[in-house]
Every structure is written in structure tokens, then in C-alpha cells.
Write a structure and sequence with these properties.
Layout lengths: L1 E9 L2 E7 L4 E6 L6 H10 L15 E9 L4 H9 L8 E9 L4 E5 L2 E3 L1 H8 L3 E5 L9 H11 L1 H30 L1 H21 L5 H13 L1 H15 L8 H14 L5 H30 L4 H21 L3 H19 L1 H47 L6 E8 L16 E3 L2 E3 L7 E8 L7 E2 H4 L2 H15 L7 E5 L7 H14 L4 E5 L3 H4 L4 E9 L4 E7 L2 H13 L5 H14 L7
Parallel strand pairs: 3-15, 3-16, 8-14, 14-15
Antiparallel strand pairs: 1-2, 1-4, 4-5, 5-6, 6-7, 9-12, 10-11, 12-13, 16-17
């Protein structure tokens, strides 16, 4: 619900605040006072086109703000957060600035957004009906959506089933197109994978093998050098030909210290340490001798290792930087090859599912069309009855549910997007079904039904919209309705019925009406008057919420055109009493 609209420097309105509430709010005022500026302000909040000419003369910019209660509108909260705005105290502030130079800025929940972003957030909140507006229910998609909501849960269940089948069919046909279109490429890919896997299998690399072979190749390549170094080390540690060596000199040092052990304990400790060194040198000398004996010059082994490394290098050049990456590639490629080798089988599975889904869609389409046709008859009957009470006694609304028939596809497998065979006919279909819904109006007896925007004048169209909204009130997702001059061309008893129907609609939604008829204004829960004043050079208008006494005065002015007429005031009081039981908040 819109709680408040603040307007500054827009047209003749200098600065005014319109406080709104639930139920029916009417706005009245003398001609030229600026009533339509309220609708203009709402249009700006809904993301409508801005006009620098609407900026008040002498002002730098016009600004419109709307405070919307979001407690019962979870979709609004999500939309505000998506554009970066904030919801504070379960309320959202929408704003629009229009400069005198024509620049426009929009804000949602304190965040600056493109005008399109403001429209995306605000448009679902308000349906505006006026003789110069683009009516929501004139759009074919909106007409079908309204009929589907009117059909209730059974129709909604059928539509949900249809959309689920439709989405799955699109997935299946998309995959089928991809598999068939790339069949040749898939064969080539499979051949390349087989060749690569064959190379990897022939070499059969092992994790860590590359490092081990590199070390072995280096050792074999320098075998002579390594053996010479080992022999020299062994001779230095323990010589076989009696030459001085480490063991001999260390043993001599120990013997010298052992000879004086009894004279000094420290000399004995050093001798013990040298004994440990001798043991270590003996072990190292034995190890070096063993190492030297194991070093063997094997040209055949060296050649084998080099050849193996070359084979591994060939693999890493093609399939990965390391042996581990080559093995990972082989594992992934084996799985991909299994998938590619199953292409023909997959095509058969997809085509079988395609046929099944189309059969289920065909059966669901027939049920959906039947449900829509039944709902269309009920809705048309209700709206036609409403029109009879709105000074259009000879008007008749019909709702056509029809399909777009097309030629049969060529024999064979059905391509993506091929028409759907339903009841022996080939029909064009979409995510909404096979049906096209069109509301037609015959405004007078004997006239042919025509599309709404062609079959009614501006005033008649507003009443048709009112009749539709009343019939759809229980199913409409729009929380606020605005009617601008909905009573054009209406008077007398028909005007009373217009007021009664607006009050009925206001029982399930917030309704804002700009009117010049007292019969309509009498049914309001809140009555706001636009008053014009002038200081001799500048004209301005303001908004005033009327109490009961002031309402009588305003209604008398609207009826008689004379302020203070006792007869008109009495008539106004009587009109309010008649309307009281029907008011939305009575």
C-alpha cells in the first residue's frame, strides 16, 4: 500500500503531501486546479517518461516521493534489495527528480538507480487507468495472465505442469541439437583421444618415475668419475699399500694420549674421543669401499634409461607438464571417450524422450485450452454484467481463446521448435501454452466484437477496465489501482454504480480515483480536494484532506457549482448517507 506521496515543484503544485490509506481515496477539485498532477506524479514514480515542462516555473527541479508499506509485499523487498536499496521499518521510499533542463534521476530505498530500475520495482505495485494511459489489461500477455489467475487453482496446476514439460523439452531438444550437430566433431575427438590413450598406455608411466630416471641417468653418465672419487676417498681413509691414511694417523694420536692417561684424566678423555673417531672412520671407510664396488659402467642400462626418459618427455610435451598431469589427462580422457562412444545411444534416448514429452504436452495443451475456455466464459459473463451497471447496458465482452495453426512439418524426426500436434492440428506453442487470449468488446447492440483498444471510446474503456478489475479483484496481484476520470461520460444512476463498484474494488485493494462526480466521491473513505490559489502573479495548488463537514461542502459544490447552497448541502448529506453502507472501510 502507498502510504504517502510528496510532491514539490510539479506543475501548479508548489509543495504538497498526500497521505493515503487503505480503501477508496478520491481526489476532486475545480477544473485546472491540478488534479491530474497527482496521476502525473504517480507516473513519474512508476518510471514513466519525464517532461521538463512539468517542472514548476522558476523551480530548478521537481521531485516526487512515495512511501510504500512493504510488510505484506515480500516481492517488493526482494526487488528493492536487488537494486541496492534498503527497507527501513517495513517501508520503502521511491523518489524521482526531474530538472528544468530535462535530466531525470531515480531512487529506490535511498539508492540511486536507472529509471528502468525504478520502473521494475514500482510498476507491479500500481495499475493506472486513464484516458491517456497505456492500460495494463490492453496487453495480450496481461489478458492471458488475468484469465489464468481468474481460473484459480485447477488452471494454475495445469499451467505449472505445462511449463515444467515445456522447459524439459527445451533442454532435451537443445542437447539433441548439440549432439547431432557436432556428431562429426565428436567422432574426430574420439579418434584423437584413442590415439592419445594408446600412446600413454604403451609407455605406462608411473608417478614419480621421471625424477628417479633423471637421477639414475646422471649417475650412469658419470660412473667413471664417481668410481675414481670413491677410490681416492677409500685410499685416504684406509690405504691398502701402507701409505699414510686417516685411520693410521688417528690411531697414532690415540696411542700417544693413551700413554699419558695415568698422568692426566683430560688426556684420557681425549683418547676416548679419538677411539670413537676411529670407529666412525672404519665404518665410513667400509661404506666408501662398498659404494666404489657398486659403481658399474653399464652403457646398455644408460641407453635404456635415456630412451625411457625420451618416451616420458614425448608424453609430457603433448598431454601435461608432468607425468602426474599426463596420468590425470588419461583418466579424464577415458571418461570422455566413454561418453563419446555412447553418442548414438544418447541420440536415441533423447529422441525417445522428445517424443514422450511432446505427447504429454499435447494432452496437457488440450486440458489447458479447455480450462481457459471455461474460465473465459465465466469472466466474460461477470464483466458484461458489471458493464450493464456502469451505463453500458448494451455492451458485451467476449474473451476469445484461440490457437495459431501452422503447417505440418516434414516427415521424419521433429526439429527443435517444430509445431505441436494437438487434436489433429499442428499448433504454434510457447511457454504459456498453445493459446492466445484476446478480450473483445461490442459496445452497442448489433456491433461486432472488437479488441478493447479499438472497440471503445476513452470513457468507455475506463469503465471496461473498472469492470475487469472488479471481476478480477480477488485474483489480481496489484495492490493499488488508480483511475483517472473513470466516470467520463457517466451521470445519474450510472455514476452511483461507478462509485459502488469502486468501493467494492477497494475492499481488496487500495484505490485512488480522480473524479468530477459527487456520486463517485460520496463512496470514498478518504476525500482529498485540490485547491488553487494565486498571489496575482503565480498560481499554486495544495492538497487538503476533508473532514465530514468539509466533504458535504465539497460535494455540494460539485453538484450545484455554488458554495453554501442549503439545498445542495442537504443533497450532499443524503448522498453520503446512501453511500455509507457500501464504503470499503464502513
Amino acid at each position: 500500500m502507498i502510504e504517502e506521496i510528496r510532491i514539490s515543484s510539479l506543475g501548479v503544485i508548489d509543495a504538497s503531501t498526500l497521505e493515503l490509506g487503505p480503501g477508496l481515496t478520491v481526489i476532486t477539485g475545480e477544473t485546472g486546479a491540478g488534479k491530474t498532477m497527482i496521476v502525473t506524479a504517480l507516473g513519474l514514480l512508476l518510471g514513466g517518461r519525464s517532461d521538463s515542462g512539468a517542472v514548476r516555473l522558476g523551480a530548478r527541479s521537481a521531485r516526487v516521493e512515495g512511501v510504500v508499506a512493504a510488510a505484506d509485499l515480500p516481492g517488493l523487498v526482494a526487488a528493492v534489495e536487488e537494486v541496492g536499496g534498503e527497507v527501513e521499518d517495513q517501508r520503502v521510499v521511491l523518489a524521482r527528480n526531474v530538472s528544468a533542463e530535462g535530466r531525470s534521476r531515480a531512487f529506490v530505498g535511498g539508492a540511486g538507480v536507472p529509471v528502468s530500475g525504478l520502473a521494475a520495482v514500482a510498476e507491479p505495485l500500481v495499475a493506472v487507468h486513464g484516458q491517456s494511459d497505456q492500460h495494463r489489461l490492453l496487453q495480450a500477455r496481461a489478458q492471458r495472465g488475468a484469465l489464468d489467475r481468474f481460473g484459480g487453482a485447477p488452471l494454475a496446476d495445469l499451467l505449472a505442469r505445462w511449463t515444467g514439460l515445456f522447459d524439459r523439452l527445451r533442454e532435451v531438444e537443445g542437447e539433441l541439437d548439440d549432439v547431432v550437430a557436432h556428431a562429426r566433431e565428436r567422432v574426430r575427438e574420439a579418434d584423437l583421444l584413442r590415439f592419445g590413450l594408446g600412446e600413454v598406455e604403451a609407455v605406462a608411466p608411473e608417478p614419480g618415475e621421471e625424477e628417479q630416471l633423471a637421477a639414475e641417468e646422471t649417475r650412469l653418465g658419470f660412473a667413471d668419475t664417481l668410481r675414481t672419487a670413491a677410490e681416492q676417498a677409500r685410499e685416504a681413509l684406509s690405504s691398502e699399500d701402507g701409505a699414510p691414511d686417516a685411520l693410521a694417523t688417528t690411531s697414532a694420536a690415540r696411542t700417544a694420549l693413551e700413554a699419558v692417561r695415568e698422568h692426566d684424566a683430560e688426556a684420557g678423555a681425549l683418547a676416548d674421543r679419538l677411539a670413537e673417531v676411529i670407529y666412525l672412520l672404519s665404518d665410513v671407510a667400509a661404506d666408501v669401499a662398498g659404494y666404489a664396488s657398486r659403481i658399474d659402467v653399464d652403457p646398455a642400462r644408460l641407453a635404456g634409461v635415456s630412451e625411457r626418459r625420451a618416451a616420458l618427455t614425448a608424453l609430457t610435451r603433448k598431454y601435461g607438464d608432468t607425468v602426474e598431469e599426463v596420468l590425470a589427462w588419461a583418466e579424464q580422457s577415458a571418461a570422455r571417450l566413454l561418453e563419446l562412444d555412447g553418442t548414438d545411444e544418447r541420440i536415441e534416448q533423447l529422441r525417445a524422450e522428445q517424443v514422450r514429452l511432446r505427447e504429454e504436452l499435447s494432452a496437457t495443451a488440450e486440458q489447458l485450452t479447455a480450462a481457459r475456455s471455461e474460465a473465459a466464459e465465466r469472466l466474460a459473463t461477470e464483466v458484461t454484467a458489471e458493464l450493464g451497471l456502469l451505463a453500458m447496458p448494451h455492451a458485451r465482452l467476449t474473451i476469445a481463446v484461440h490457437q495459431h495453426e501452422t503447417g505440418a512439418p516434414a516427415e521424419g524426426e521433429l526439429p527443435t521448435g517444430a509445431p505441436l500436434r494437438v487434436g489433429g492440428r499442428w499448433l504454434r506453442y510457447a511457454r504459456s501454452g498453445v493459446d492466445e487470449v484476446e478480450m473483445l468488446l461490442a459496445a452497442n447492440t448489433g456491433s461486432e466484437p472488437r479488441p478493447l483498444h479499438k472497440g471503445a471510446s476513452g470513457g468507455e474503456l475506463s469503465r471496461v477496465m473498472l469492470a475487469l478489475e472488479v471481476a478480477l479483484a480477488g485474483t489480481s496481484p496489484v495492490p493499488t489501482f488508480v483511475f483517472d476520470e473513470v466516470d467520463a461520460g457517466v451521470g445519474g444512476a450510472a455514476a452511483v454504480e461507478v462509485g459502488r463498484r469502486l468501493a467494492q474494488l477497494a475492499r481488496s485493494a487500495q484505490v485512488l480515483v480522480v473524479t468530477h462526480l459527487p456520486q463517485v466521491a460520496a463512496y470514498a473513505d478518504r476525500h482529498v480536494v485540490v485547491r488553487k490559489s494565486s498571489d496575482g502573479s503565480v498560481t499554486s495548488s495544495g492538497l487538503t484532506l476533508l473532514d465530514d463537514d468539509a466533504r458535504e461542502v465539497e460535494l455540494s459544490r460539485m453538484m450545484a457549482g455554488l458554495a453554501g447552497s442549503d439545498t445542495a448541502v442537504a443533497h450532499a448529506r443524503e448522498l453520503l448517507e446512501v453511500a455509507q453502507p457500501a464504503r470499503a472501510l464502513a
